[in-house]
Amino acid sequence: MLLAGGAIALSGLWATGTFGQSALAAAKRPSYRAKLSDAQLVDLFERAQQELKATTAFHIGSWHMDTASWAVDLDIGRISFVTKTGTNVHAPVQVIGTRLKSDRTWLWAWDNPSIPSACAADTRRVRAFGTRQGIAALSEAKIAASEADAWKYTALAAHLAAANGAYRGVAGKTEVFMTFGMVTMEGASGAPAPE
Question: How large is the average pLDDT for residues 13-19?
């Protein structure tokens, strides 16, 4: 399945991550096995959103993701961007969820038959966390959600999976919220882009 679109105007949070390495090494992924207090949960969601905001600025500032066109190939699990200067940017992708603007519903990727299982691993991590913490919004397949809620869930997924970034693409009437892994870049000539 291929999703694609042109550059979209920034709305809320957009992307996150650090170029060339994950925000947290895979070995340092947070597990949160113990039940967190309400105050700890609020702090965790806030921290995840702040991480997303901080690293969003990096991606936009370093390779202009905010003006790049994009495409996702779910068959191979890859998101690709092409910047206005012709630089090609690629990364492994995970779909977190989809949001229909018309009825403000969110469907987690782990329950979406259109999303290959291999592209929904990060969302299963969120579901497991939600089940352990007793948070229905993270463990029920389809829920009501604002755009801010969708970004909050995506930020949490990026944090829990130590993802390198997050992105929201629009495919028709559907907003697709995704996380991505290590970014690779090629200049317009096909050679690695200078860092």
Answer: 33
